[in-house]
Amino acid sequence: MRFDLNCDLGEGEPGARTEALMRVITSANVACGGHAGDVAGMERCVELAKKNKVRLGAHPGAVDAAGFGRGDLRITAAELELWLLQQVGALAQIAHVHRVRLHHIKLHGALYHATERDKRLAGAYIEIVRRRWPNAVIYAWAGGTVAKLAKSMVWGEAFLDRNYLGNGKLVPRSGTHALLQSGREVRERLEQLARGTVVSVAGNVIRVHPRTICVHGDTPRAVAFARLARALSSQAGFGTRSA
Predict the structure, then answer these.
(1) Per-residue confidence at 72, pLDDT binned at 50, 70, 90?
(2) Of 64, 74, 208, 214, which has fewest CB within 10 angstroms of its CB?
(3) Distance in angstroms (rounded) separating the CA atoms of residues 19 and 70
(4) Structural domain of residue 57, as residue ranges?
(5) In this structure, what are the phi and psi dihedrals at residue 80, rounded to the nearest 5 degrees?
């Protein structure tokens, strides 16, 4: 099994962190003006992705900078399409100027979870992407609603730096065990994923078959975790960068 290593970037993190992560990841999910991100940040991320041969993706979120796009969300299909046109469209235009292909779209935070909860919204999301960006891959929850509805265009995602509940969902960020804390834990997670599993905080073994694995750019030890993942790539089976 070969995995891609993706990271959410352009969300206001220090420039040195962006550069360090771009040197080790294989896909970048770039914030494009909803929950975070601005034109200068998008330009910089596109340039770094091109320089490091990293797959470029859009990371649209709820228009909610104060809540970082992670609050409770109710949205219609029409509103979702407008947000995607504004945000993905902006990044795609910048990428075109730099002659970089938009490889994928990965929703952020509340938008990501809204499409997993609501089958109709998930279907609308898939149709919007098919119609507006027909060559783009969708990064979505491995085995989740979006992945089941659009298998051929989805790269299923699991998480390198987040803990799972026994029901297969992520431990809420408000929880004390939301994030993995050590290199040992990350090494164990990689070994689990290579076997097609993750182990929850309660000890449940959860079957998961991702194609891409996420490390969040705002995780305190994101750079160290990403470097560890690359160092263990021969055992974990991580994929190569884009051409």
Answers:
(1) confident
(2) 74
(3) 25
(4) 4-236
(5) -60, -45
Find the helix packing angle between 222-231 and 183-194, rounded to 10°: 50
Question: Which residues, 6 or more positions from 52, have their beta carbon under 8 angstroms from its beta carbon?
Answer: 22, 23, 241
Amino acid identity for residue 191 in this structure: E
Which amino acid, 218?
Answer: D
Q: Which residues of 110-147 are buried (b: 16+ CB within 10 A; e: fewer)?
A: bbbbbbbebeebbbbbbebbeeebeebbbbbbbbbbbb
Residue 22 has pLDDT above 50, yes or no: yes
> What's the mean pLDDT in 201-228?
95
Residues 6+ apart with CB under 8 A from 197: 205, 206, 207, 208
153 is a domain residue: yes
Give the dihedral sign, CA 147/152/153/155: positive
Any idea what the CATH number is for the domain that residue 141 is in? 3.20.20.370
pTM above 0.90, yes or no: yes
Structure tokens at 164: 């799972």
Q: Give the pLDDT confidence of 143-168 residue by residue, as tens digits.
A: 999 999 998 999 999 999 999 999 99
CA dist., res. 143 & res. 212, Å (int) = 12
Q: What tokens were used for 109?
A: 């935070």
What is the number of structural domains in the chain? 1
